[in-house]
Amino acid sequence: MRVDELLFLAVVALPLAAAQWEICGSKGNYSASSTYRSNLRQISTDITKNASSSPSLFAAGTVGAVPDMVYALALCVSDSNSSACEACVATAFQDAQQLCAYDKEVSIAYNLCYLRFSDANFLSSTDNSGLIDLYNEGNITGDVGRYNRAITRLINATAVEAEVSPRLFARGEVPFDDPQYPKIYSMAQCSPDLTRAQCGRCLDNLIGRWWQTFQANTVGTRSIGTRCNMRAELYSFASGMVLLPPDAAGPAPPPVLAPPPEDPNSTTGKNKPTTKILVIILPVVVIASVAAISLRAWNMRKKRRWRRADNFSGLNTAEDFETIRSNLLSLSSLQEATDNFDENKILGEGGFGAVYKGLLSGQEVAVKRLSKGSNQGLEELKNELILVAKLHHKNLVRLVGFCLEEGERMLVYEYMPNRSLDTFLFDAEKRRQLDWATRFRIIEGVARGLQYLHQDSRKKIIHRDMKASNVLLDADMNPKIGDFGLARLFGQDQTRDVTNRIVGTFGYMSPEYVMRGQYSMKSDVFSFGILIIEIVTGQRNNRPHFFEQNEDVVSTVWKRWSEGTVAKMIDHSLGKNYPEAEVLKCINIGLLCLQENPIDRPTMADIMVLLNSNASSSLPAPAARPTFFLVDGSSRYSQTITQLSAR
Questions:
Q1: Number of helices (H), then strands (E), in the chain
Q2: How far is it, in rounded angstroms, from Cα 331 to Cα 310?
Q3: pLDDT of residue 297
Q4: 562 and 637 share a domain?
Q5: Using CA atoms, how far apart are residues 226 and 131, in angstroms rounded to an integer?
Q6: What is the domain extent for residue 68?
Q7: Which of 275, 261, 611, 576 is nearest to 443 (CA)?
């Protein structure tokens, strides 16, 4: 019998009460004779009854008055039955009071349901607090990289399916073509009181923290929160539907939409009189039609008003509008956050305007303010707004909100206290703070962020301006990719595009982009290769004075690599405090990214596998030297850029 079968039998054989996972609160307790306990008893009865009788198997509510008010929420797996839901929620209330005796706040999860109660009002928020993260013991063997990619693609597809389904719920499965694990199974669910956009954001956040929470080779993982949950297993925990093709590591088709769940109490059929059916259906159709027309008209008025305000003509779909509308901030709030845009709050300036540090509702933020009366950067700002609002990943800078009021156009991001990578890497003193462990973590984090953009997010996105100054560092020196002003959204089957407007940064652009205006995921890979070389050497590739004999850094690294003396190029500020094999592996990967033919460059998924491989000897060698190198101080690269930019 296979391991997955044993796990499955173990799970279904256990009593419900024996398979719980709980988080006990630490903010206060109640006594046996308190009003809070009486209220808790009452709400346990109400929530159990309401959840099991609800078509969505969900209930939330309150009992009592502050300070003894109890807030509670219960959510059962959407395709379970009402009696099983009732038993699970009732057991959850009992277990919670035994396992977390007299705690005012408890979160508890089972295979079938999730319960949370508290004396704090968590119901007023759509945040996915009360998270419980679970994983199965044991690790997968074999091709971990392929397994990682398959899991990532599957949970993304399942999240998309859940977001568009009537009950905000979906299951999925994908053939994995492994003798031990023939399939991978998944589930995603949101509380039914969320909008579809809120559900999408909640599940995106779970996906964004997935590999931060779990190891890539774990055989089963679950994240269960107040507002949404997600699960992936190597055994079937319910019937599923195929979302991906057998080669899960390859391109995925659009997710297959599940039919709406049928009402188990439905009695429609041939034996029902037609008149009765019409009596039931016609009013519903009329009401639904009126509601749909009204909603569409309201959305159109909103979108027209939006475009009139600031010429944001890119907001062409209801999805775009719904995604970003919830992030709208008032001008007064940002004026207060930045002390009315005090010059002392300026973090930096660019062609678009200034970036200010602010304090918004207790959170430190960076406010990117487009200069008034100038169209420079407007397209880029619009691009960032539409794209970044849909992206959620630990290695991407998070968009807090935006403001389009009284001629102001501003984007608000989470504040990154250590600014950008270039401020450390290219400063003779500061780069001493970048030990090798930190540098490797930055390389790996940027790679994960780009992999998410290219294939793991629900939209395929090309960054087009990947460089050290667009890698921002948080308080712990973890990297986050920023500045999506030049990014482009690709269709599901699209692999490349062509433009006559060459934009980007000298020293980072790929040869096919500079020469022919072609950009693709492999353009980002080329830029990432430049970034690796800069991180290893501590030298800027596009600086005006070049490393040795008037050559750029990449050309010098290639020469040293060919001669077998590339170790001399490693940043001297590291001393000898680094694993030479790992550093040389990174140089090898960097040179692979810089191959002239895009086909010869690895994908970001390939790069993640190479970065996590143990033996550098197994890495393929770069076939040819990088293109657009400098010889005798003459740059064919810069000449070409000048010619194309003049079009």
A1: 18, 23
A2: 14
A3: 42
A4: yes
A5: 7
A6: 3-118
A7: 611
| Alpha carbons 264 and 241: distance in angstroms, whole number | 20
Residues 109 and 143 occupy one common structural domain: no
Instruction: Report residue 462 as tokens.
Output: 């090309």
Over residues 157-179, the pLDDT tens digits come to: 899 889 988 899 999 888 887 77
d(CA 505, CA 324): 29
Nearest C-alpha neighbor of 12 from the set 136, 80, 112: 112
Q: Are residues 539 and 625 in the same domain?
A: yes
**Which of 397, 414, 431 lies at the terminal end of a domain, its last residue?**
414
> Rounded distance, CA 236 to CA 174, Å?
11
What are residue 402's DSSP bridge partners? 328, 411
**Residues 23, 132 contacting (CB under 8 angstroms):** yes
Residue 497 sits in a domain of what CATH number?
Answer: 1.10.510.10
| DSSP letter string, 238-262 | S---B-S-S-TTSPPPPPPPPPPPP
Looking at 6-20, 21-35, 200-214, which range is the least confident one? 6-20
Q: How many domains does the chain have?
A: 4
293: pLDDT strictly greater than 50:
no
Do 501 and 635 belong together in one domain?
A: yes
Task: For residue 25, tell me if it sits in a domain.
Answer: yes
Active site residue: 103, 320, 465, 483, which one?
A: 465
Cα(384)–Cα(396) distance, integer angstroms: 12
pLDDT of residue 144 exceeding 60, the answer is yes
Query: In Å, what is the CA distance from 552 to each residue of 312, 354, 443, 464, 644?
Result: 41, 31, 21, 21, 21
Burial of 102 (0-12, 13-18, 19+ CB in 10 A): middle
Instruction: Among 361, 380, 414, give the residue marking a domain's end.
Output: 414
Sign of CA pseudo-dihedral 500, 506, 512, 514: positive
DSSP reduced 3-state for 392: coil
* 465 a catalytic residue: yes
* Inside any domain, residue 174: yes
Q: State phi, psi for 400 to the nearest 5 degrees.
A: -85, -40
Q: Please tell me what DSSP assigns to residue 472.
A: E
Residue of higher predicted confidence among 141 and 363: 363
**In this structure, is residue 277 part of a structural domain?**
no
pLDDT digits (tens, 9 = 90+) for 263-277: 444 333 333 333 333
In this structure, the dihedral spanned by the alpha carbons of residues 500, 504, 506 and 508, taken in order and rounded to 10 degrees, is -110
Asked if residue 521 belongs to a domain, the reply is yes
DSSP 454: I
Q: Where are the beta strands (DSSP E) in 64-157?
A: 70-76, 106-109, 113-118, 132-135
pLDDT winner (highest mean) among 96-100, 101-105, 148-152, 333-337: 333-337
What CATH number does the domain containing 170 carry? 3.30.430.20
Note whether 618 and 481 are same-domain residues.
yes
Please give the backbone phi and psi of residue 509, each rounded to the nearest 5 degrees, phi first.
-80, 140
Statement to judge: residues 428 and 398 lie in one domain? no
CA 639 – CA 131 distance, rounded (Å): 54
User: Is the confidence at residue 333, as pLDDT, over 90?
Assistant: yes
Residues 408 and 452 in one domain: no
Residue 208: pLDDT over 70: yes
Q: Are residues 409 and 434 in the same domain?
A: no
* 428-479 per-position pLDDT tens digit: 899 999 999 999 999 999 999 999 888 877 667 888 888 998 999 999 999 9
Please tell me the pTM assigned to this model.
0.52
